[in-house]
TrEMBL record:
<feature type="transmembrane region" description="Helical">
    <location>
        <begin position="297"/>
        <end position="320"/>
    </location>
</feature>
<feature type="transmembrane region" description="Helical">
    <location>
        <begin position="183"/>
        <end position="204"/>
    </location>
</feature>
<dbReference type="InterPro" id="IPR051533">
    <property type="entry name" value="WaaL-like"/>
</dbReference>
<feature type="transmembrane region" description="Helical">
    <location>
        <begin position="388"/>
        <end position="408"/>
    </location>
</feature>
<feature type="transmembrane region" description="Helical">
    <location>
        <begin position="250"/>
        <end position="266"/>
    </location>
</feature>
<feature type="transmembrane region" description="Helical">
    <location>
        <begin position="272"/>
        <end position="290"/>
    </location>
</feature>
<protein>
    <submittedName>
        <fullName>O-antigen ligase</fullName>
    </submittedName>
</protein>
<feature type="transmembrane region" description="Helical">
    <location>
        <begin position="420"/>
        <end position="438"/>
    </location>
</feature>
<keyword id="KW-1133">Transmembrane helix</keyword>
<feature type="domain" description="O-antigen ligase-related">
    <location>
        <begin position="256"/>
        <end position="404"/>
    </location>
</feature>
<keyword id="KW-0812">Transmembrane</keyword>
<feature type="transmembrane region" description="Helical">
    <location>
        <begin position="79"/>
        <end position="101"/>
    </location>
</feature>
<dbReference type="GO" id="GO:0016020">
    <property type="term" value="C:membrane"/>
</dbReference>
<feature type="transmembrane region" description="Helical">
    <location>
        <begin position="450"/>
        <end position="470"/>
    </location>
</feature>
<dbReference type="Pfam" id="PF04932">
    <property type="entry name" value="Wzy_C"/>
</dbReference>
<dbReference type="GO" id="GO:0016874">
    <property type="term" value="F:ligase activity"/>
</dbReference>
<keyword id="KW-0436">Ligase</keyword>
Length: 471
């Protein structure tokens, strides 16, 4: 009874406080940073578990629409997932707006030095400039409606960019080790459940959960590959940060093994190569800065190679891809007639993407508007399969400049201050770096990119937090 009374009095106090507020600025000032942090954590936990929620929805659809074709069921699942993204993303974007208003009010009250403020928040300001440029690009595009909503396949218009900004902001507000670990552990456990079902590859289960061989609940193997490369490096984070807890360490090592096995089985070479590079960089960094973790990291790296070799004995995927890579490079260097098919057709997409970028260098063709331009050149694709070229051709060279400069500023801080970091922060930044490497061969997608922006938000804020402690 006492608990209910305390809760009631708390509600009354909050009501009285809200009645006394006179402006939106007063309201944002009333909301504490801890409030934003709790809401952000709930949003991010909901998103990282979304693949499991989608699997459950798939099984419900199987029972409800038994006569529905696999394609139509895939469309229904896609709609459910995108609506879920919008609901979470727009709540997250509201937090983004409140944070900006709150920070502006703090500036007025405390009279901060604007030059110092800009210097400290260069990464965030550059990313906001990129979002603003995306809005302008949408407004001046030839198909503004498509630029806002995106295509029915990718849903990657301005509407979705707004959710990315929200997810980045939520990630930015997660600045305790326990909260970061909670998000990453649930992300890894969710991805491991999906990976386990992929490895089982039982037709009955595949039909119930609308699984495609090697791509799970994603549209194709490349999309699943983007997700997997972040999941694998995230599992490394958990293995290393549970060094003293043997039970958890072994649990996450098992998750790592399963995720690597599925990554190799996935047959998407770009994400596989990105993961290999990410693990190699992490091994080198740990050797020079965290010798206590080198033994564990060496085991992790060796396991990756062994799993790759064992699975390759059955599929020959890696040998074929490596030989193909060398052949593609040779064709490009010699300007062979077959060079346009290099990189599984990516070379011609890259060349044309750069051409489109130069055609509209300021604002680009607009978000998700490249499909018709590729069609004019008789290419049945809507993306260059390189996120950097995609940004430049879709949003304009200035947007790419803001994005690359923001990333450069962030990773410059990381490399200059690495001696002050712990293994958690290094591993967190390597999740971001691994995805970025895979993005040279990939596309943004509404169900994979949010993970990247969550990790980027956490990496940026926590990197700054550590550096500020040593200033």
């Amino acid at each position: 009874m006492r608990v209910y009374k305390e809760f009631f009095y708390k509600i009354v106090r909050v009501r009285q406080d809200l009645k006394s507020l006179k402006s939106l600025g007063d309201f944002t000032e009333y909301l504490s940073s801890s409030f934003f942090t709790k809401i952000s954590l709930c949003i991010l936990l909901a998103w990282v578990i979304s693949p499991i929620w989608i699997i459950i929805n798939s099984s419900l659809l199987s029972n409800k629409f038994k006569n529905l074709s696999s394609f139509m069921k895939r469309v229904e699942i896609d709609i459910i997932w995108y609506v879920f993204l919008q609901q979470l993303g727009y709540i997250a974007f509201i937090i983004f707006i409140f944070v900006i208003i709150k920070n502006y009010n703090d500036l007025k009250i405390h009279k901060f030095n604007y030059k110092n403020l800009i210097k400290i928040n260069q990464v965030e300001i550059l990313l906001i400039f990129m979002l603003v440029w995306s809005i302008i690009s949408t407004l001046v595009s030839s198909d503004m409606n498509l630029s806002f909503t995106g295509t029915s396949y990718r849903h990657d218009g301005l509407n979705t960019y707004i959710t990315y900004a929200g997810f980045f902001t939520c990630g930015y507000y997660i600045n305790t080790k326990s909260s970061i670990k909670k998000i990453i552990s649930i992300f890894v456990l969710s991805s491991t459940i999906v990976a386990g079902l992929v490895l089982l590859d039982i037709n009955y289960l595949n039909n119930i959960f609308s699984f495609n061989t090697n791509s799970a609940i994603f549209y194709n193997i490349n999309h699943y590959g983007y997700y997997l490369c972040m999941a694998v490096i995230s599992s490394v984070f958990l293995v290393l940060t549970n060094k003293s807890n043997k039970k958890n360490k072994h649990k996450y090592l098992l998750c790592y093994v399963l995720l690597v096995a599925v990554l190799v089985k996935n047959n998407s070479f770009g994400p596989y190569l990105a993961t290999l590079v990410g693990l190699s960089v992490q091994l080198v960094i740990i050797y020079y800065n965290f010798r206590d973790y080198f033994k564990d990291m060496s085991l992790i790296f060796i396991l990756f190679l062994v799993i790759s070799l064992v699975i390759n004995m059955f599929s020959s995927f890696l040998i074929v891809e490596v030989l193909k890579l060398f052949g593609d490079v040779q064709e490009i260097v010699t300007n062979d007639n077959l060079s346009e098919q290099a990189g599984s057709g990516r070379w011609i997409l890259w060349k044309n993407g750069i051409k489109y970028m130069l055609e509209k260098p300021i604002f680009g063709y607009g978000p998700d508007n490249l499909g018709y331009r590729y069609a004019m050149d008789k290419i049945q694709q809507d993306r260059p399969h390189n996120e950097f070229i995609q940004i430049a051709a879709s949003l304009g060279i200035p947007a790419l400049f803001f994005y690359i400069t923001a990333l450069y500023k962030h990773f410059r801080l990381v490399t200059k201050n690495i001696k002050h970091f712990d293994i958690e922060l290094i591993s967190l930044n390597l999740v971001v770096a691994t995805y970025l490497f895979s993005s040279f061969f990939g596309n943004t997608m509404f169900y994979t990119s949010p993970y990247y922006f969550i990790f980027l938000g956490m990496a940026v804020s926590n990197t700054k937090l550590v550096i500020n402690c040593f200033r």
